[in-house]
Design a protein that fits this description.
Layout: H1 2-19, H2 37-46, E1 48-51, E2 54-57, E3 68-75, E4 78-86, E5 90-93, H3 97-108, E6 112-117, E7 125-126, E8 139-140, H4 142-154, E9 158-163, H5 181-187, E10 193-194, H6 202-207, E11 209-210, E12 215-217, E13 219-224, H7 242-265, E14 270-271, E15 284-285, H8 289-300, E16 317-318, E17 329-330, H9 335-345, H10 358-388, H11 398-402, E18 408-410, H12 416-423, H13 427-438, H14 448-458, E19 462-467, H15 468-477, E20 481-484, E21 491-493, E22 496-497, E23 506-509, E24 514-517, H16 526-532, H17 534-537, H18 550-563, H19 565-575
Parallel strand pairs: 6-9, 6-10, 18-19
Antiparallel strand pairs: 1-2, 3-4, 3-23, 4-5, 7-8, 11-22, 12-21, 13-19, 13-20, 14-15, 16-17, 23-24
Helix pairs in contact: 1-2, 4-18, 7-8, 7-9, 8-9, 12-13
């Protein structure tokens, strides 16, 4: 102010010496300029003298050049000079980083932090029974335990939990084009911190500051586990398809019929029903149709048989072992016995009679090899069926989800997952976003709880895309839910803070001149003010705009992580979900 008066006084004196200035009566209501005004301004531009603020000189446009500004920050115990700025060297910090951090630490211990959050399991819920608690005790959950651990680590004076007015995480409203939810609370300085399942995104990071991640995750698919089919009387048929059973029955009947026909055609399969009569009127054949079927089923069941085919002379036995040359021979390979032989093969029980002729051995051997493969396949499929069941998962990956139309899928409106799909350059994710936007009825939900409830209600007809950490919690809580496929991306949860939160008021001073910059300040005269402090209004300025509390909170999160307390807090609330799904 002193130098400004000196400039005007010197210019007025020079003009008076040259033109003998006469001052008429002035009126505040008059709009006519003073006749000597332009002349005085021209003289002021030409002045150059050492003043209290340094050398005073102006350029052709009347702007002061070659001057210095002191940058100070306001703390609870007063104003502290932190840097010097001049038009030649720019900004020069004169306070060390450690000094600044120590000052912030002292402020933290004297500050009551306002912490914003939203209701949502397991991060924050109301303490039950409702209405019996006040203050921070009204809430419980992962977010509360985390901020409490940070407050204890940094020795906060205290903190106060509040809820976002609209109950949203934070996104740009399509109608107002302004931030809502927790981001709005931080931007409007209603809260010093915002903590919940708040994903760090590019847009959010441009609006507010974030700490280092306290939880890493990715987008995945929450789906309802298809119910297992209850066992029934015919469960033993399920290891094979209907076609396999049909082919096996056809082979069984075919082998039995062939045995029956061969035994009828050859005379060696006929027996004397009366061994004492050397010339009987009738002969009998043991391989009737029933015995052939019994032989085949015996092989299938791996039970063996006491009868084997005898279609050649080697299969015939004497009915009178004491006679050297008997008149009559007998053959036990009736059709009934053939069936019994095959049944013994299936059941793997063996037989007390083995084939002796080449032809019968070839037929029996081919049947036994077929039965061997069939029994091995049945045993393997039956074991798999009894242990894991035969339920086929309809959706195994995000590609499967996108390639079908039977199962609908959705996201939470305004959330980071919705932003991931709407802004993705991946053709698959773009196609999925278009499908979600065009679905009728709408597949967008207002909260994660609503999405989980819809997945459980529509069982196999709706899938919900959400963060893997939340999916893990829901799987602990509800045993009928599963996570399908791999994570689609990699993201993190962080604590949101206002940009330059401790510099609620910045002073850019000369010994007698002060420029006060408030949060959200826009220069009224950009041509002059941005020239005086161009780094102040530039997005890429030299002076950092990150929250001064970020470094301290980052250190606290690291301490909790290295000590294992961060993991303990998560385990506590994830296992507290109440389910026995992982026990």
């Amino acid at each position: 102010m002193y130098d400004a008066v000196q400039v005007f006084a010197k210019a007025l004196h020079e003009v008076d010496l040259a033109e003998n200035v006469k001052v008429p009566s002035l009126s505040c209501d008059s709009e006519e300029p003073w006749d000597y005004g332009p002349t005085i301004i021209d003289y002021m531009k030409q002045l150059e003298f050492p003043g209290m603020t340094g050398m005073v000189r102006f350029d052709e446009e009347g702007r002061r050049t070659d001057f210095t500004l002191d940058v100070v920050e306001v703390y609870r115990d007063g104003v502290t000079k932190t840097a010097i700025w001049d038009s030649i060297n720019g900004l020069s910090l004169i306070r060390s980083y450690n000094d600044t951090l120590a000052e912030v630490q002292r402020n933290v211990q004297d500050k009551i932090f306002i912490v914003a959050s939203i209701i949502g399991e397991p991060y924050l819920t109301y303490t039950k029974p409702l209405g019996q608690y006040t203050g921070n005790d009204r809430f419980e959950g992962y977010s509360k335990d985390l901020i409490e651990a940070i407050a204890e680590n940094l020795k906060f004076k205290d903190y106060q939990l509040i809820l976002a007015r609209d109950g949203k995480n934070g996104g740009i409203d399509e109608k107002t084009k302004k931030w809502n939810g927790l981001i709005r609370e931080v931007l409007e300085m209603k809260a010093d911190l915002a903590i919940c399942d708040l994903t760090i995104t590019y847009d959010r990071r441009n609006a507010v500051d974030f700490t280092m991640p306290f939880m890493n995750l990715g987008i995945s698919i929450l789906f309802s586990q298809l119910p297992k089919e209850p066992p029934n009387v015919f469960s033993f048929l399920k290891p094979f398809s209907f076609d396999v059973w049909l082919f096996m029955a056809t082979a069984y009947l075919g082998v039995s019929i062939i045995l029956f026909i061969l035994c009828r055609l050859t005379p060696y399969e006929w027996d004397n029903p009366h061994p004492c009569d050397p010339d009987p009127e009738e002969l009998e054949n043991s391989f009737n149709m029933l015995n052939c079927l019994w032989f085949s089923i015996g092989s299938l069941m791996a039970a063996g048989c006491d009868i084997l085919p005898k279609m050649s002379p080697f299969e015939w036995k004497t009915t009178q072992p004491n006679k050297g040359q008997p008149q009559v021979l007998e053959n036990n390979q009736t059709f009934h016995n053939c069936v019994w032989h095959n049944m013994g093969s299936l059941m793997q029980q063996g037989s007390d009679i083995a084939p002796q002729a080449v032809s019968t051995r070839m037929l029996a051997g081919m049947w036994w090899f077929f039965v061997l493969i069939l029994n091995a396949s049945y045993t393997a499929n039956l074991a798999a069926f009894l242990t894991t069941g035969r339920i086929e998962e309809t959706i195994k990956s995000v590609q499967d989800l996108a390639d079908q139309t039977k199962v609908k899928y959705g996201v939470m409106v305004g959330g980071s997952t919705a932003g991931f799909f709407s802004k993705s350059d991946n053709p698959l994710y773009q196609r999925m976003w278009v499908q979600m936007a065009q679905s009728k009825p709408s597949v967008f939900v207002k909260s994660n709880d609503e999405g989980v409830a819809r997945v459980r209600k529509e069982k196999g007809r709706f899938a919900y895309l959400m963060e893997s950490s939340s999916i893990g919690y829901q799987m602990h809580k509800y045993c009928d839910l599963i996570q399908v496929g791999m994570e689609l991306d990699s993201k993190s949860y962080g604590i949101a803070l206002p940009l330059s939160e401790s510099r609620s008021r910045l002073y850019y001073t000369q010994p007698h001149d002060v420029v006060v910059i408030e949060p959200g300040y826009e220069p009224k005269n950009p041509g002059i003010e941005t020239r005086l402090v161009p780094w102040l209004f530039s997005p890429k300025g030299n002076y950092p705009n990150d929250s001064p509390y970020r470094t301290l909170i980052n250190k606290a999160i690291l301490d909790l992580q290295e000590s294992g307390n961060l993991s303990k807090i998560k385990t506590k609330w994830w296992e507290k979900a109440g389910g026995n799904c992982f026990k």
